[in-house]
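Marked as duplicate of an earlier ticket. Keeping the data here for the record.
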Amino acid sequence: MAKRKILIITDNFEFKGGMKVMAKRVCRQFPEDEVRLLSSVSRKYFFGTAGIWGIFFPLNFIYLFKVLFLTLYLIGKLKVFSKIIIVSPSPLLGIIAILLNRRADIWYATTLPDEIGNKRSLFKVGMKMKVIIIIERFLLPIYYLLENMVLNNRNLDSYALSTSSACYYNTKSKVAVIRYPIECGWGKHSEETRKKQYDIISVGRFNDPRKNLKMLLIVSLLLPQYRFALIGPLPSNINIKEFKNISFIGEIPRAEIEPFYKASKIFFLPSLQEGLGIVYLEAMSAGLPVITPDNGGSRDLIREGYNGCFISPVDVNGCAEKIKKLLSNENNLNNMSANSVEFIVNYSQKESKLFNRIFN
């Protein structure tokens, strides 16, 4: 059988985050085909991997400009591809397929209404430059319109990363929920490697204000008796020497994070907003209970008292007490650890079947 030519269009592939993990997972789904991956980047970025287009665009930080730029770039180039898949934070990137009159699958993490819900605006907390904030807020009505067009277009098959975090508007057709199909054995290590070096681990792009790093740091000060491990980039204004009980690991490849999960007792991330939260899946696969706010994809993955606990993203003292209570009860901690693994086994079987059926 002849190889198909498949194009995967994604966003923010240069950053170590959920989009990169999702895009790579889709690429692995087509081992017998010729797959190309396209992403605009905000700086001259060397991918070093065959089959990837990294298109440098100076105005990459303005989302509408990025989408229009990619659309113009792809004119005349799509005819050689038999299948197009778009992997993006929101459905908005799907406007490329509409403008170029091509059928496509769209796998997205969340929608704009969810991003800006409860005054937690992506543009408010995610942009440092005031001029960018002003431009994005001015363009917001256009973003809403275009995203709605994508979700209501019958030629585009839309798939959401999680149920609760995706606001579907009044779509003409049902949006299928395709969660990230984490590998069931992700993070397997022998028992000898399970020595608990850390009590609490947290993984994320902490230079994104939505990760609520400030709360995490305050909680660590309230719990000086416990050892924390933080993996991911930090804002430049953080003085790590002030936090004696935190090991700041920094950015490391995803595969190298596995031993840190295994060397920890619980996973804690006080995010203000998440799509699904792939790190939750990774942590539970390693047998860790998850402590996080009830928002985004967490409410679809965590059962209170079974494989984790919910906390308020503003109640620092209550959060610290909940963590202390869990860590001080070894039997409960062990039960929740076993429940986390059991949840992932069932989750992996179900979601992998659905993922394989849709992306084929």
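See parent ticket for discussion. The mean pLDDT is 83.
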